[in-house]
C-alpha cells in the first residue's frame, strides 16, 4: 500500500547562488574535491552557505554536458538566502571553499557555469596564491588564471557569476519506525541525484533533526520542531501533530536554480519512495508563506501553471 501524500506544500524562498564545475584526472579525485568543497554547509542557520553536489558530468557522468578540458567533472552549487542582502558573503564562501578545497585537491581545475552581469573576481583572488608567479591565460576558449603548484598547475576561470535561485524545498517522510522513514528518504535522495540543477545539502541528503524557525533561547534562530518529535507526543507541554503510528520522521531539503527544477525533483522523490514498506505519510514543512513565496505542492495537480 502506498503512503498517504499529504495535501500540503513546501515553502521555498529566494537565494543567490554560484554554480561551479570541478574537473580532475578521474572521478575519484573529482569526488574528493566535491566532498571537501561542500563540507560543513548543510544549513545557513549556522553555516556560511548551503553547498551541495548536483551531478557528475563529462566522461563517466552526464555525457550530454561536456567539460572544457574533456575530463571527468562534477557540478556543485553554493547558496545563501537572498534576504541576507550581502552578495559578499557568498563571495567569501566561494573563495574559501575554492582556495582551500579545490585548489588543494590533486589534479583539480575550476570553471564557472553562470554567465551573468553579476560576478565575483574569484580567479584573481585565488591566483594570489601564486605569489607573483601566477599569470593570465586563454585556454579552452576561456579567460583563466594559471597558478603553479607542487602537483603541476591549477587553472580557474577569472569570473564566477551568480544568479537568483531557490532554497527550502523539502519533503518529510513519516515512518512507523526509524528503518522505514530512513529507507523512504534514501529512495527519495537516490531519485533526486540524477535530476539536474538541484542539490540536497544535509548528510547523505537527509536531515534527521528537522527544525523550526525560532527558539526559546535568544542566542539561536532555530530549534527542534517539538510537535513533530515522536518521543514528545505524550509530553503534556507539547501539542503533538504526528499521525497515529508514526515513530520516526526524516526530511529531505532541496535547493536549486529555479522553481521547475525543485518541482521535478520533489515529484521524482515522492514517486520513488511512496511504496516503501512501513512508510505511512509523505508531507512537507511550511510557514504559511511567512518565510518564502514559492510553494511546491506535493499534489502536482495543485501546482499553478
What are the key terms here?
305 residues; alpha+beta; Alpha-Beta Plaits; 2 domains; 3-stranded antiparallel β-sheet; 5 helices; 21% helix
3D architecture notes:
There is one protein chain. With 305 residues, the protein is an alpha+beta fold. The protein folds into 2 domains: 4-11 and 167-302, Alpha-Beta Plaits (2-Layer Sandwich); 14-163, 2-Layer Sandwich (Alpha-Beta Plaits), CATH 3.30.70. Helix content is 21%, strand content 32%. It has 5 helices and 16 strands. The chain has helices spanning 27-37, 87-102, 122-127, 178-192, 259-273; strands at 4-5, 9-23, 50-57, 73-81, 109-112, 119-120, 135-139, 142-149, 152-157, 160-175, 198-199, 212-213, 222-223, 248-256, 279-283, 294-297. Strands 1, 2, 3, 4, 5, 6, 10, 11, 14, 15 and 16 form an 11-stranded mixed β-sheet that branches. A hairpin with a 2-residue loop joins strand 7 and strand 8 (142-149). Helix 4 (178-192) packs across helix 5. It is elongated, with a radius of gyration of 21 Å. The model has no long low-confidence stretch (mean pLDDT 96).
Spatial shape: elongated
CATH classification, class level of the largest domain: Alpha Beta
Number of domains: 2
Number of strand elements: 16
The percentage helix is 10-25%
Stretches where pLDDT falls below 50 for ≥5 residues?
none
| Count of helical stretches | 5
Average pLDDT for all residues: 96
CATH topology of the largest domain: Alpha-Beta Plaits
Largest sheet: 11 strands, mixed
How far apart are the termini? Answer: 30 Å
- Percent of sequence in beta strands: 25-35%
Rg for CA atoms: 21 Å
Order of helices and strands: EEHEEHEEHEEEEHEEEEHEE
Structural class, from secondary structure content?
Answer: alpha+beta
**CATH architectural arrangement of the largest domain:** 2-Layer Sandwich
